[in-house]
Amino acid sequence: MTPKNKATASRRPKAGDSSNAKLEQLGAYTTEPAAQLTTNQGLQIPDNHNSLKAGVRGPTLLEDFILREKLSHFGHERIPERVVNARGCAAHGYFEVYKSMSQFTCADFLQDPSVKTPVFVRFSTTTGSRGSADTVRDVRGFAVKFYTRTGNYDLVGNNMPVFYIQDAMKFPDLMHALKAEPHNEMPQASSAHDTFWDFASLMPETTHMLMWTMSDRGLPRSLRMMEGFGVHTFRFVNGRGDGHFVKFHWKPKLGVHGLSWDEAQKLAGKDPDFHRRDLWESIDAGDFPEWELGVQMIPQEKEHAFGFDLLDPTKLIPEELVPVQRIGRMVLNRNPDNYFSEVEQVAFHPGHVVPGIDFSNDPLLQGRLFSYGDTQVARLGGPNFHELPINKAVCPFHNFQRDGQHRQNIARGAVAYEPNSLTEGKEFRVDGASGGFQSFADEIEPPKARRRNATFDDHFTQARLFFNSQTVAEKEHIVAGFRFELAKVMAPAIRQRVVDNLAHVDEKLARRVAEPLGIDAPDPRAAAGRAGYRDHQVKLAIEESPSLRMADLADASVKTRRIAILVNDEIDSASLKPIREALEAAGAQCKTVGPRLGKVWSASKRQIEVDATFATMPSILFDAVLVPAGAQGIASMKGMGEAVHFVLEAFKHCKPICTVGEGVQLLESLGVGDDPKTAPAGVVVAATPTTNLGDSTAAHQIAHDFVAAIAKHRHWDRANIESVPA
Ligand code: HDE
Asked: What one-character-per-residue DSSP string does 350-396 give?
């Protein structure tokens, strides 16, 4: 791993620096300080503006090796993007365990609480190309590389605990169906098209994962506010060789929060970098994202205790049946120095394990163990990608693999084989007696067979558990998610097959999804008659799992939430003060948004700095809105379409809004009046300007109520939002 570049870090602007200062401090693109430009061979370049010509108006000479080197390097700047999970962003940090886990695993990084293990974490969307938008509906990759003292360990997971398919054999088909269609490369980064739903409808094992992707889990508010999962069942192995099955979880400190679908789509246009910017800016400002590592451990002898198969990646283990033990924490505290060298060239592989962690026989995981190494060779141009700084183990590594493209290490000596006797005058032999990684002594069940066990045949029970566990609003979002996607599907037969399958999850869900789709009522018997359908029903010990609903995973804090304070000439600036102070004291970040950059002047002729304009920072970039008082200022804002749209849109996306005095008039088209008692959920109305309230209890109460409304994140049960014209 690259050591932290102190020089670059100290040059970095701090939060709050003006944008000019930021520009001045971006730093030259260089590996070492240099006063001049040179070729890749170190030859000083005399002129970086003119190519070598036969006469000043003549043709360029082929002899111009400086121009040729420059153009040729440029022409080869791009490497093949990842075939899936191409769009990503990443950060450095560390992991520390709370107490030794030696009873369960001998993994070195899970032994000593005083050890900080460096990590590099790459988040990604799955479907889109490298240039696609961050906020599309998709499962997010959550890949963690631990640089441990016994080798690199990669936990290459997702933000959902299950996957679409059960066997690696189906992965290329799944991705061919999901990614843009091959004849016209459309649609980009979206599952809302015929080929995906064709495949999904013919493969009922996708149903559980579909419930997750159609839910708000597919639309994270921030990468810092989503859970992570190892998905497959892995194994912990302790020093005595005893095994425990283990499922990995990442629990975010900031809770789990989502965007609304309308907001996510608008963000894709107005700020396609929304998630990566949020991650970068948080780390830059010192608000380091944090997750706890959780494990669900299942003793070897309980393997068959659940009814469903632990080896089936379309199943989760409800936390109510096996609690998640939080065993350590991960903090991301440093942005990459170079996107390409680090984020693009990082090579993850579920087969990068360390002693103490082993695989299960999950047939999807088994396929991944081949695929990732293979893909890195193609993507990073050869077998030596482990020598790239971002991929390099921090512990010593040594073997007799030789040569290959892009070798960076210069190995000395002639003896590149084992056993050998020509070095140091003694025999060198690695024959199983010298320690190292030991595979768990798992028992193999004959016969060799190309089929699945019947325990993989229940495709609907856990999808139903997931749906039953959601709040009313979350269920509505799932219905809307399915409706949107299926309305984009041209072939009615595909729409029909999907709702017929859904009828096995929940009849009402299927009916509601089908209503606007111009198809027949869902028919569960039709689904049951199709190839691929299995009706093995597992009896689960629970019917609902609260740990599956995002509403129960919210944090009660407003830390790092972004609040827009609308400003204009002639507003009452004093009305903002106590509320802004309370927000900032609680850890929220406030920005003033107005009609123009520079300054506006309040009714009492105080100047107010404007951080951003309504056009460049629309409401979708914020978590909540504060509208000040001021008769004239608000009257003129009512004439600004962008300002009115700002507030209406925030309302439509169920965001907390606080209006002071006349500020409530920006909501008057929705019938919101100045009676605080009749205000809709999450709207805090201060009927009297806080100037008049002064530093009174009432002013503090308003601030307190607004902070409490923001801590709830969104007020998803706000009535009638479909009617809001925004
Ligand atoms: Fe991946 N996957 N995958 N995958 N995957 C890749 O590896 C693959 C699967 C996941 O930030 C590729 O380096 C197969 C499950 C993440 O660099 C590729 C199968 C899960 C990332 C590949 C799966 C994942 C990848 C593309 C089924 C959740 C991004 C480029 C057998 C547990 C890692 C690359 C990063 C990337 C193959 C299934 C997560 C092609 C064959 C299940 C987070 O090798």
From this structure: TT---TTEEE---HHHHHHHHHHHHHHHHHTTSTTGGGSGGG--SS-
Give the orientation angle of helix 492-502 with respect to helix 472-487, to 10 degrees: 160
Residues in CB range of 696: below 8 A, 6 or more apart: none
* pLDDT of amino acid 8: 41
Measured in degrees and rounded to the nearest 5, phi and psi for residue 566 equal: -75, 135
Q: What is the pLDDT of residues 374-401, one digit of tens each?
A: 999 999 999 999 999 999 999 999 999 9
Q: How far apart are CA 431 and CA 443, in angstroms?
A: 22
Query: Is the N-terminal amide bond of 118 cis, ω within 30° of 0?
Result: no
Kind of pairing between the strands at 624-627 and 562-566: parallel
Ligand 1: residue of 79, 83, 85 to mutate (most ligand atoms within 8 A of CB) is 85
Q: Please name the residue whose Cα sits nearest to atom 42 of ligand 1.
A: 163
Stretch 609-621: mean pLDDT, rounded? 97
Amino acid at 59: P
Pocket of ligand 1 (CB under 6 A): 82-85, 88, 122, 124, 141, 143, 156-158, 163, 168, 171, 231, 313, 346, 348, 364, 367-368, 371-372, 375-376
- Nearest CA to 486 among 455, 450, 514, 447? 514
Q: What is the pLDDT of residues 147-183, one digit of tens each?
A: 999 999 999 999 999 999 999 999 999 999 999 999 9
| Token output for 390 | 């971002």
